[in-house]
Every structure is written in C-alpha cells, then in structure tokens.
Amino acid sequence: MDIPPVDAELALAEVRARREQVVDTNLVPRWFWPAIGGLMLLFIGAVESGIGWVIAVGTIGYVLGLGAVIVAVVRRTRVQVRFGLLGGRGVGAILGFAAGLTALGVALGFLLEALSAPFPALLAAVPVAAGLAVGGPLLMSYLRRLMLSRPLAGSR
C-alpha cells in the first residue's frame, strides 16, 4: 500500500508538533529558576543570621516554598523525558550548569570568608541565585533545541 507524499508529510508534521508539545510540557518553567534562587537566599540568610528563631522561620519557609515549587512543577509535567531524547550532551549541560554554579558559590564563599566579609555565604549566593535566574531559562532553551533536533525514529 502506497501512502501519498502529501499524507506522509502531514503525518510527519503532526508527529513533530506532538513531540514539540511533549518537550515543552516537560521543560522546567521560567519562574522556577528565580524562585529557587530566592528560596536559597532566604535560607542562607536565615542560617547566617545566627538567631535561632530566624533560622527556624527561614528553614520552615524554605521547606514549604521548595515543596510548593516542586509540587507546581510536578503537576505541570505529565510525562517523563527519556534519556534518549535528552542524550549525553543534555545531561552534560545540566551537570555542567550545576557544577559551574556550585564552584562559583563555594569559591566566592571561601574568598569572602578569608577576607572576613560579613555574611560570606549569603554574599556568595547572590551571584549563584542570579546565575540560576538567568542561566536556568537559557539551559532550558538549549535542552529544548537539543531534544527537538533528535531524529523522530529512535534507535532500537
């Protein structure tokens, strides 16, 4: 049975549109990144205050806020992205992003501590939070392009 070329093109267009829909549904939303950065700053600031009740309130706020953010993201996501769609380059980009921000925060924190700066961890976390807010959406954009560039037929 021969399929007319126009029908094949329409079917492929439909498959591509569905794949794009699945990819877009599974990417972390833009608001996630500044929310995580803000929660991180709240928690670090509370801990560095050294005041018991501030630490307790900041910790509870962090846990509740993080839980709310995770629940909101999980409710938005309907399916799981397979490793084959993300690939080694995607995993490498995620790990590199996390490692880069971690290295920045730790190095800056130690430097500020050595310089006897007040609140060194909080000050070191500010560029990390900014990196999350700016870099997170860029990472998601890269992962989207990467996933959509994969061939429609996966290897078996």
UniProtKB/TrEMBL annotation:
Spans through the membrane: 27-47, 53-74, 86-112, 118-140
Name by which UniProt lists this protein: Transmembrane protein
Keywords per UniProt: Membrane, Transmembrane, Transmembrane helix
Top-level taxon of origin: Bacteria
Organism: Actinoplanes subglobosus
